[in-house]
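Record pair follows.
FIRST:
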Amino acid sequence: MTSPDRTHPLTAPRPPHPPTPRQPEAPLPSRQSGAPPSRPGLALLRVALAGSLPELWKLAGWTVLSAAPAALSGKALALAVDRGFLARQPATGWGWLALFAAAATVSAWGTRNAYRPLARIVEPARDRLLRATADGALRQTAATRPDPDTAAVAVARITRQVEAVRDSLAGQLLLVSHLALTLVAVVAGTAALAPGALVPICAPLLLSIAAFAALTPRMARRQRELFTTEEELTASALRTMTALRDLTACGAEQQAVDRVLADVAANEAAGRALARLAATRHLLVALGARGPLAVLALTAPTLLRHGLSPGALLGALAYLLGTLEPALRLLVQGLGPSWLRLTVAAERLATTAVSEEEKPAVAPPSPVRRRPRPPALELRGVDFAWGRDAQPVLRDLRLTLRDGEHLAVVGPSGTGKSTLGALAAGLLHPDRGHVLLSGLPAAQLSPTALAALRMLLPQEPYLFTGTLAENLRWPDPSLSTARLRQALHDLDAASLTDRHGGLDGAVGPAALSPGERQLVALVRAYLSPAPLTILDEATSHLDATAELRIDQAFRTRPGALLTITHRPSQAARADRVLHLDTTAWSLTHRPR
């Protein structure tokens, strides 16, 4: 028997984080080769926003109304100081300030009303994303073998990434146009009010924006790593929750805990790496907002000597402190990360989502050329030794086992029979040569894929405490009661239900004899849809009559059968017999 870390998906070796997807996911049909990664995400966003054009126009109108007063703030303050309070006309000064307050009130009213069309845009877009993502996930599952990891990734995308797109999309639609209008208003207002202050304001601002643009690709990588580790953590948690019994029985609890904690640590590291960029963003805010303020303060005496009025200088400061700095903070701290979350999440969703326009049209059936099914098991020049300097137990082993064939493996103890079974099951990897299961390299298959392609029964099978039906249905709980009873009848094992209170009777390793444990495991293997069944002394505790009945039943079952046995009578019923000894191997064909 091999150790649990070779056999269970929770303890199998994995690459270091940040992980990459196990299989390339099908992109949107609209994606062209060589396209930048964000293009399918943007295409998905266009699909999500389809039909929202009228509401987008309404949102744009309210945004213009909310941003327009920014151009009046500095001018109104300058006029209030120069023509009002410094000219000893307080009523005029208060009038200009009242105008500024009225403009601010109009801006707040416009912002408030912008949320209504925003909700009518974002919520339907979220629903379209959910439908497209769920539809794509179901199509991928229908096209491939069901995989818990694929389901976990789909759940992570539907729950986490769709919501990330929804929240970020709302922020982008509400703030991008407002920010752009605000920046234009500040620059235009400063140019009209104090042209000499334009250079001290714009130079640090442009440097800040350029630095932020240079930082964006790194932020995008960190955001992708965060989403990837979230998907890995979701898949790991799902595998753990669905395999608690198996983990307890195998004694692999600590390994599973370590595995999940490693995924948690990887997700935490990705989050910390993204969070560390926040410090850089704070520096950019200081450069873009406080830099112009410092430069303007230092150049104020010179500007005043060259004709700049105190009111104009105060108005320029108002543009910086009251309008430019909040707008720049939105750009660097809000819109930047929000845009990254939006594009990266949409990019991830685009690998799964299928839009209405991209769904394949229903076409009439066309003739299909059936390809011959690959062999259930193929060994190509396999060598194996238990250690670097140990004598090989298998040398240049070559054989093919197809659907409907029965191969018996015989030989003295220590000649590698059980080793051959573990190699055929993909639990061990050869030192040289290749092991193929249904045409696929066993060394490259995940534990889930291996379980779908072969069933291995050792001499001492695994059973858990529960009902007889639960043991027979593992790992397929969808098997009907009628199917269970038919399998028990086919293997002449119906007496199990009589002795243990029926299918709902409680059984377990301690409640069953060694022969009964083997019989339960054989019925479970008989019910498995795997194209290859490997029986490693799996009938050693049964009598000859029961063994004959089981051999006959497995010969009628679809798939190939590999039996490792010491009994000549069992080997005599096989189509071929593989003889192993310490120096060579030979293959004997028997007439069926």
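SECOND:
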Amino acid sequence: MTSTPGVRGATRALLTLAAVAVAFAAADTYVVVLALPELMGSVGIPVTELQRAAPIVSGFLLGYVAMLPLIGRIADLRGRVPVLVASLLVFAIGSLITALAYDLPSMVTGRFLQGVGGGGLVPATLALVADLYPVERRGVPLGIVSAVQELGSVIGPLFGAAVLALADWRAIFAINLAVGLVLAAAIHQLAPAPDEPPPGRSRGRPDWLGLAAALVLLVAATTTMVRPGVLQRDLTWGQLFVPYVGDGRWLTPIGVTAIGAGLVLLLRSLFARRPLVDLRSWLAHLREADLVGALLLAAALGGIILAFATADAEVQVFSPQGPWYLLGSAIAAAGFAWHLRHSPAPLVPRGSVSAVPAWGSLVVSFFVGSALIAALIDIPIYARTTTYRESQLLAALVLVRFLVALPVGAVVGGYLTRTVPAGVITAAGMLGSAVGFTFMAQWDATALESWTANGPLLLCGFGFGLALAPVNAALLASTADAVHGVAAALVVVARMIGMLVGISALTTIGLRRFYAAQAEGLTGTEAAIVQEHAVFLGAAVCAVIAAVLALVLFRTAHTRGLAPADLLRAAG
């Protein structure tokens, strides 16, 4: 697909649906915040043992981040729309498994698949923008995509709270399932029709055997996981749930039926002439996309995620196993670096992000994430420590003031890229966020009771939003069309890793100030406020670093259209 001066109605609708999908998947990152106690109870984890529920959160992050580069590369090879549709289907399947989960492994599996599907939407959508718009007109659509992605942060907790007020937590993922399927069907319908069927497929009658196997798999697997009491108590149907050996659910007649149907569907997908689900072309693209390199990079990213995401951000830097996770990550990273140098077709093609603005956008994105996480985590903590001690919900809603301003800034930042250098916009936004954090570092115990607290929150959120589109624009303008998918994935990964590393570093600084304040005789609340002040100041430093790096590294990024004087000369 090539860039064109204008975008037709159907293409606008396609991009709109992709943006909605990104927002909905982003909301799922935060939707479990309020529902987590109910999720824990449903799989037998006491609320007092919150650390055991860490895989429910880290499983989603692992799928979201670790598989992004591979999905982005496949989007370059197979196309943006097929990856969007496939990602939505994976997201829907993950939602179904989560809704039916009966133990921690099944719930983590569902959340992991949700993360894979939700994460895959982001690079495919950003690359789609680059396909549809020329460089000088990408700013606004990139800003809108960034805005709706962050808007999901606002919608997620509110959506979860609204559903929980009317139903139990499983309804959240049932809605995810329905929305994912509807969006997948709509995007598939709007996609341009291919001139020829994909490799391995030909036009003809449907794969009835594959369809039957899929239906049997759906019914049998659902029945295995739910185990309806009315069937279990029946003298005839109850035999379906009696294990052949042990007490596992899947070594029962109904479980084995589900496994058998799944194997039939898999074999049809690999060897049938006209399969219901064509896995052969996807496997071919997996090989072409450098699966080995993707697995090495996923292991490196996964180690970082597990080291930081499984820790309690309020009291520790790493989880107890954190050093071992980081050691494994370092080994995998070394293997990935060696693989990139010797593979004839590496996951990240050699030279694809060698331009200064391209790799510079990854560095800037890292520091943007390092600062952003302080707002997302510590603003609610500050509210809970001071003004809203009795209400976790009200403390979380303080963050909404920050998050409402962020999408507005993202759209404004995208619009400004038409006439203002990307580095200047990014620097202005991050300096604004630094000022907001500096004001927060002066808050006292009653600061949130005054309307003046809204100023720093709005300024900080607007500043982060202002920086998002220019960073993406600088990256896409400095990389070839053929690698936009994997490049967009890398910039998202850089921000997510920055968030994880940032919260660890800032927590370390904050905890030292906390213990020092206690040693000086301050009360627990006073020491906690000192701790949060240290975190906010550390975030301000990260924001200033991002601003300076953007000014230096984005100097050669050609993201603007023609200036008015240039337009007049061109017309003459």
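COMMENT: The CA atoms of residues 243 and 540 lie 58 Å apart.
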